[in-house]
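DM from R.C. (forwarded with permission)

"hey, sorry to bug you on a friday — could you get me a structure for this? deadline for the figure draft is monday and I only need the backbone to look sensible"
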Amino acid sequence: MNIGLTGGIATGKSTVTALLAERGAFVIDADVIAREVVLPGSPVLEKVAERFGPGILQPDGSLHRKKLGEIIFADSQARKDLDGLLHPPIRALMRSRMEERERTHPEQLVVVDVPLLYESGLQGMFEEVLVVYVPRHIQKDRLMKRDKLSSEQAENRLNSQMDIEEKRLKADIWIDNSGNLEQTAEQVSRFWSEKGLV
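My reply, with the result:
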C-alpha cells in the first residue's frame, strides 16, 4: 500500500512522517529527490544551466540555489520553465522508488512526502492521500515563531499555497496535529490499525 502525505507550511508533516516511519513505514521524501536530480554532473542540472546560464552554477559545479531563486521569483515564465525541467524527472524517480519498494516489500506501507502534492496535481499517483492538518490560525502562529516572520510575511507565505481547509476536504485521511505529540501519535496509531498494518 502507498499513500501520498502532504499538508501546509508549518502543519508538522515531518512529525507525522517520523511517527509513521517509527511504526515501520518506508518514507520517500520528494524534497530529497528534488535535490538528487540536480546533483553536479546530472543531465537535469545541465539542462537547467542551459536554460538559465552558467551563473546558476557554483565553482564546484553544484547548483547555486540562491541565484536560481532570484531569477525564478522575479519571472513567472522562468519559474514555469524550471518546473518543466524538474518535475518530470522528480516524478519519475518518486514513482520508480515507490514501485520498487512495493515490489520488494509488499507488506510495508510506502509513504511519499510531497509538500505541494495537490498543487502539482499528483494525487492520482497514490492509493490514498493523508493530509497533516492544523487550523490556519495555528499554522500562521507556528510559522511566525518558527521562521521569525511578521504577521504580513506569514500571511503572504500561507496565501502562496492551497488553503489547508481545502486540502483537508480533498484528503482521504487527515491527522489533526494541533494538539500535543501524544494526541498526534494516537491518531497515527488509529490510522495504522484501521489499515491493518503490522
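R.C.: lifesaver. The two ends are 12 Å apart (CA to CA).
me: no worries. DSSP finds nine helices and five strands in the chain.
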